Write a sequence for this structure.
């Protein structure tokens, strides 16, 4: 009987959580600090503790094969910018004071081959990199193969800088202007202006037109982690839309009602996902199909599971290897005995 009551209580709790975070009336266009590379999605939610508010970095991977998430780290404050590439996340934290510098960190998601669960590398703290000046406005960052690009604006205009093995260096002849932002789309750094006109950095470091038309009226931002250029658009009232960018103009994929709290839309696999905080360090997600644009139901994200079958497979490999080794030793022993008998 107690087990029945426990199950019923859990069902009621989940239903209440789903009702609490349903996309209802938008409370503005507040955006969660987030980044995605299409395979790994990272976003920051708030949690209240006795000592005050803390910020939780959550990580979701398509390889988890579920609507689940893991807590990667707790942060002292909300990141000013984030960018992800091939499982590695870069973060820049806002300066704590006017005279302070911007802290720069990175962390990589690694999958345990034995359990199937993901963990962070470094495991106990994020990797620390040379900091950035605190003055000026940070207009975005973009992860690259061996470092990260940043765009900062000041009274003298906008400047691109690159973090490499020798620290921060200015990018020669940057095409940036004061109104541009820097993002990462489909693995390429992209400069985008207020109208949604995009300039892409090629593999050789040169910048050129993406060939896509401007996103047009209502453009909010390019979607991180999208497999191709895609934009989040503002429609009438609380309606939002996801548009693919093309040379002939935007192509509408999906529309949805903006949640009543901060949220983010990230590229995930071939499609997209809306992530919404549920309070106290939790989150919910809605998937958007990449073909029909169907917006799925809102699902509260649980903790990432460990793949127990991986342990069975590992044990089978160990037992099989031990059996093969024993068989080989036994056959060798028989051959030695037969040879000894023949010599006699």
């Amino acid at each position: 009987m107690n087990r029945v009551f426990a199950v019923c209580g859990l069902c009621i709790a989940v239903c209440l959580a789903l009702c609490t975070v349903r996309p209802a009336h938008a409370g503005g266009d507040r955006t969660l600090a987030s980044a995605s590379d299409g395979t790994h999605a990272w976003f920051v939610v708030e949690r209240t503790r006795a000592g005050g508010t803390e910020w939780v970095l959550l990580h979701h991977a398509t390889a988890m094969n579920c609507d689940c998430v893991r807590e990667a780290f707790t942060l002292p404050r909300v990141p000013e910018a984030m960018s992800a590439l091939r499982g590695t996340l870069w973060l820049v934290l806002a300066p704590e004071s006017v005279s302070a510098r911007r802290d720069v960190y990175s962390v990589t998601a690694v999958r345990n081959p034995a359990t199937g669960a993901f963990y962070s590398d470094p495991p106990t703290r994020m990797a620390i990199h040379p900091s950035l000046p605190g003055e000026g406005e940070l207009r975005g960052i973009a992860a690259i193969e061996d470092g990260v690009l940043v765009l900062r604006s000041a009274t003298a205009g906008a400047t691109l800088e690159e973090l490499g093995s020798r620290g921060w260096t200015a990018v020669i002849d940057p095409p940036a202007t004061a109104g541009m932002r820097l993002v990462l789309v489909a693995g390429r750094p992209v400069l985008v202006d207020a109208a949604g006109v995009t300039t892409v950095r090629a593999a050789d470091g040169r910048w050129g037109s993406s060939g896509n038309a401007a996103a047009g009226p209502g453009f909010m931002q390019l979607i991180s982690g999208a497999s191709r250029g895609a934009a989040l658009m503002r429609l009438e009232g609380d309606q939002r839309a996801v548009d693919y960018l093309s040379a002939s103009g935007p192509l509408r994929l999906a529309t949805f009602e903006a949640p009543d709290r901060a949220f983010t839309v990230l590229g995930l696999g071939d499609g997209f996902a809306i992530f919404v905080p549920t309070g106290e360090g939790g989150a919910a997600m809605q998937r958007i199909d990449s073909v029909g644009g169907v917006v799925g139901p809102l699902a509260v994200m649980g903790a990432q599971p460990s793949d127990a079958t991986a342990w069975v497979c590992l044990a089978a490999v160990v037992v099989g290897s031990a059996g093969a080794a024993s068989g080989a030793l036994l056959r060798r022993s028989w051959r030695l005995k037969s040879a000894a008998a023949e010599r006699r």
